[in-house]
Amino acid sequence: MYKITGRQILVIALASALFAVGSVMAVQQLWERLQPLSSAFSTSTPSNITEPSMGTDEQNNIEVYKSISPGVVNISATAMVRGFFGLMVEPQEGTCSGSIIDEQGDIVTNAHCLENVQKLSVSLGGEKKYAARVVGVDADTDLAVIRLSEAPKEALTIVPMGDSDRLNVGQKVLAIGNPFGLDRTLTTGVISGLERPIRAQNNRQIEGAIQTDASINPGNSGGPLLDSHGRMIGINSQILSPSGASAGVGFAIPVSIAKRIIPQLIRSGEVRRPKLGIIPRDVAPLANQVRMPVSDGVLILQVQPGGGAANAGLRGTVQTEEGDIEFGDIIVGIEGEKVKNNDDLFKVLDKHQVGDTVNVEVVRNGRHLTVPVRLTEPTDRRRSVRE
Fold first, then answer.
1. Is 112 noted as a catalytic residue in this protein?
2. What distance in Å separates the CA atoms of residue 319 and residue 119, rounded to the nearest whole number?
3. What are the DSSP calls for 34-100, one per residue?
4. 106 counts as catalytic
5. Which of 198, 269, 294, 366 could form a Cys-Cys staple with 209, CB 3.0–4.6 A?
6. Which domains does the chain have, with CATH numbers?
7. 100: closest CA among 224, 268, 251?
8. pLDDT attached to residue 324
9. What is the pLDDT of residues 36-59, one digit of tens each?
């Protein structure tokens, strides 16, 4: 009979305990990763805001401001930029706005506010500033999350999130932010338009932006666009103005996009978007210069080795031994949706997940083919031009 010593019993007991702890931690981490996190967002109307239909417009403005403005922060971002002659790198400080969204001090703001950022500090009102760090950035939607390092929880006012899918043109909106560094400024207006396509700084198209005539100026970026119940329906992002100041045409990123993006940024610091693994080029500009088999679509310039397109046998553009250019496959549709350009390609792929297999319709040598492609994650995330 095999005999076990007391020391072996202790070793086994210790190993079992460590294994149990490790298993519990692994399961907990997995559970946290699987949680949507959006359920943690506050969506309730602040109790001290009167039903808008029961009070005056002035009363509503005052109550929304008093309830929500403590949750709107002033972000000071120090970035390193090149000097006038491009010879020296020197610090430059800018200000943006942001909204506190949970009890752990997470703040949603614009990605463009954090470009080349080296140091962050946040004011919750008054002279005192708190250190903060970047949690995650998504340049494609111009959204980012930063986190306060040591601010007391009792000082945090959470800005509740509303529903941007049920908005109407003419609906009243309020914007709170820090234009030109002026702390917690309130402006009001209406929704001037819906479903406006705007461009992020990396030239990605952001679908469904909210247009408003509420004054938005430099420094308002990242602040909340609110409904009359004090709920955030958008994140102020851009203005359309020749002078650079408010001209009554501002745009906010719908909170419906933020609800989808923010949990991913908090969880992993980035957004995992599926890619075909190609370098694309719009056909339309090329069709004006050379003869193409179609007038719209996305030409594959190059397939990424090991990517979904390469594995599926899609072809890129090559130069023959005679020096001629042989165009690659032209994508004209995915899963039955037409693809006329890069914007369409990005929009369709954004509806899918990494690992999904999609049917890609291409034109090759004048023939239409449908090729199943398994979507992958890009191996080189610095190259945003790849799809």
1. yes
2. 47
3. HS-SGGGS--SPPTTS--GGGS-HHHHHHHHHHHHGGGEEEEEEEEEEE-TTSS-EEEEEEEEEEEE
4. no
5. 198
6. 29-271 (2.40.10.120), 278-374 (2.30.42.10)
7. 224
8. 82
9. 444 468 888 888 899 999 999 999
